[in-house]
């Protein structure tokens, strides 16, 4: 696969995992998942992880997977790239895994004394990859290993932090997010 095609396939395959975080920022608010509970003097997750944000994030990821699946044949024809469709389990793994990774990162932040919104370099940028890829491999193994070749995984690991930093700086600039990370 040529580099451009690998990059486009990686972005396409990861889009159902990329969108949930942004949708959660837009829809977030209301009751925190941890219900305000603490553990060891710190919040379990914090006010930044809400039921509404999480549900909206997963729903947005599933919607994106559905739309990409509907357009896959057309976009394949236009680009000549071998773009995948998404099975329901693959979509769930990517979307729910992204939200779960983000929640797990907040759990780790609170355990390491970081307040809500604090930066955690590396974790902030790759938390959703670290959970969404293994979860998808578990839920939809044959889909996962057909789509996520080692080249695609490599591109995802390089591309994701760049996209994450860019979208967060833009969201911060637009006043949608409180911090640029
Ligand atoms: N958000 C949400 N539910 C989620 C994830 C995010 O409601 N599961 C919303 C919250 O309003 C949150 C915002 O999106 O404040 C930004 O997300 P994020 O940067 O992940 O949260 P932080 O507020 O920075 O909190 P943390 O330090 O725990 O990451
Ligand atoms: Mg944050």
Automatic annotation (TrEMBL):
<dbReference type="GO" id="GO:0043338">
    <property type="term" value="F:CDP-2,3-bis-(O-geranylgeranyl)-sn-glycerol synthase activity"/>
</dbReference>
<keyword id="KW-1133">Transmembrane helix</keyword>
<comment type="pathway">
    <text>Membrane lipid metabolism; glycerophospholipid metabolism.</text>
</comment>
<feature type="transmembrane region" description="Helical">
    <location>
        <begin position="53"/>
        <end position="73"/>
    </location>
</feature>
<keyword id="KW-0472">Membrane</keyword>
<keyword id="KW-0460">Magnesium</keyword>
<comment type="similarity">
    <text>Belongs to the CDP-archaeol synthase family.</text>
</comment>
<keyword id="KW-0594">Phospholipid biosynthesis</keyword>
<dbReference type="InterPro" id="IPR032690">
    <property type="entry name" value="CarS"/>
</dbReference>
<keyword id="KW-1003">Cell membrane</keyword>
<feature type="transmembrane region" description="Helical">
    <location>
        <begin position="152"/>
        <end position="175"/>
    </location>
</feature>
<keyword id="KW-1208">Phospholipid metabolism</keyword>
<protein>
    <recommendedName>
        <fullName>CDP-archaeol synthase</fullName>
        <ecNumber>2.7.7.67</ecNumber>
    </recommendedName>
</protein>
<feature type="transmembrane region" description="Helical">
    <location>
        <begin position="126"/>
        <end position="146"/>
    </location>
</feature>
<dbReference type="GO" id="GO:0005886">
    <property type="term" value="C:plasma membrane"/>
</dbReference>
<comment type="function">
    <text>Catalyzes the formation of CDP-2,3-bis-(O-geranylgeranyl)-sn-glycerol (CDP-archaeol) from 2,3-bis-(O-geranylgeranyl)-sn-glycerol 1-phosphate (DGGGP) and CTP. This reaction is the third ether-bond-formation step in the biosynthesis of archaeal membrane lipids.</text>
</comment>
<keyword id="KW-0808">Transferase</keyword>
<keyword id="KW-0812">Transmembrane</keyword>
<dbReference type="InterPro" id="IPR002726">
    <property type="entry name" value="CarS_archaea"/>
</dbReference>
<dbReference type="Pfam" id="PF01864">
    <property type="entry name" value="CarS-like"/>
</dbReference>
<feature type="transmembrane region" description="Helical">
    <location>
        <begin position="85"/>
        <end position="105"/>
    </location>
</feature>
<keyword id="KW-0444">Lipid biosynthesis</keyword>
<keyword id="KW-0443">Lipid metabolism</keyword>
<dbReference type="GO" id="GO:0046474">
    <property type="term" value="P:glycerophospholipid biosynthetic process"/>
</dbReference>
<keyword id="KW-0548">Nucleotidyltransferase</keyword>
